[in-house]
Amino acid sequence: MEENVQKQVSMPRIGEKAPEFKAVTTQGDINFPADYKGSWVILFSHPADFTPVCTSEFMTFASMEDKFAEANCKLVGLSVDGLYSHIAWLRTIKEKIEYKGMKNVEVKFPLIEDITMEVAKKYGMIQPGESNTKAVRAVFFIDPHGVIRTIIYYPLSLGRNFDELYRALIALKTADEFSVATPADWRPGDDVIISPAGSCGTAQSRMDGKEEGLECKDWFFCTKKLDKDQVLKKVLKK
Ligand code: BEZ
User: Fold this and answer.
1) How high is the pLDDT of residue 238?
2) Which end of the chain, N or C, is less packed with Cβ atoms under 10 Å?
3) Average model confidence (pLDDT) across the chain
4) What is the atom index within ligand 1 of the atom nearest the CA of 56?
5) What is the spatial order of strands in the sheet that 214-218 belongs to?
6) pLDDT, mean of residues 178-200
7) 14, 148 in Cβ contact below 8 A?
8) Which residues contact 16 (CB under 8 A, 6 or more apart)?
9) How large is the greatest C-alpha to C-alpha distance in the chain, in angstroms?
10) This model's pTM is above 0.70
């Protein structure tokens, strides 16, 4: 495969180091992910400036920025538009757009200009079946060591659920801090899942109720309580 074709189809994967790049943004130049070492970061793309779904998303994300910051997570946006378009769009959002009770919203996180699509292609944000000229709505959760931990892609027409992005961040951090997994629709305060029994002996002792604090539905499916305050104390500001 020719090198430029390979670049076009490059899709980073969970567990890999986030591809490196330098970029111009609405908050100055960045060196990614080096500048974010020690923090979680959500790198996300949107199709185009001055479009309604993207506007609703930016207002929502900007309104939640402090909440993400409390969880030691920074936000970085990207579209394949130029810097002046980004600046003009963000100014319009602040000055003119009112949506769902949000108004006068200032987007303080960096928005990358990527006219060459270099970054978008590195991150598999250009998906030609959807569009050759616009990035899809990609979301990369990158941990403080620069490792990609979760990837979510949405098509152009579907605005993201930002409560879910926050929930996913808290769940990822909880899994790291407490060495557990989180079941469907988990939220802080819900029971968590402990790793499956790795031996017949452990399976038996769990079924015999010998491991304190566990509730086993079967030998492979055991949960335990994890207090909400304990979770939030650990995962916020860390
Ligand atoms: C929007 O953000 O409204 C949008 C962008 C690209 C295609 C369709 C909708």
Assistant:
1) 65
2) N
3) 95
4) 2
5) 192-193, 221-224, 214-218
6) 96
7) yes
8) 147, 148
9) 66
10) yes
pLDDT tens digits, residue range 139-148? 999 999 999 9
CA of 229 to the centre of ligand 1 (A): 39
Domains along the sequence of the chain with CATH: 2-160 (3.40.30.10), 179-235 (3.30.1020.10)
Does the beta carbon of 53 sit less than 6 angstroms from any atom of ligand 1?
yes
| Measured distance CA(50)–CA(190) in Å, rounded | 40
Q: Tell me the residue type at 121.
A: K
CB 32 within 8 A of CB 17: no
Spatial distance between the Cα atoms of 12 and 140, rounded to a whole number of angstroms:
9
158 C-alpha vs ligand 1 centroid, how far in Å? 8
**Nearest Cα to Cα of residue 56 among 89, 94, 99:** 99
Nearest CA to ligand 1 atom 7: 156
d(CA 120, CA 145): 21
Q: Tens of pLDDT along 31-53?
A: 999 999 999 999 999 999 999 99
β-pairing, 137-142 vs 28-32, is unpaired
Catalytic annotation present for 200: no
Cβ neighbours of residue 123 closer than 8 Å, sequence gap 6 or more: 10, 12, 19, 43, 45, 138, 140
How many other C-beta atoms lie within 10 A of the C-beta of residue 222? 22
State phi, psi for 159 to the nearest 5 degrees: -70, 145
CA distance 152 to 146: 17
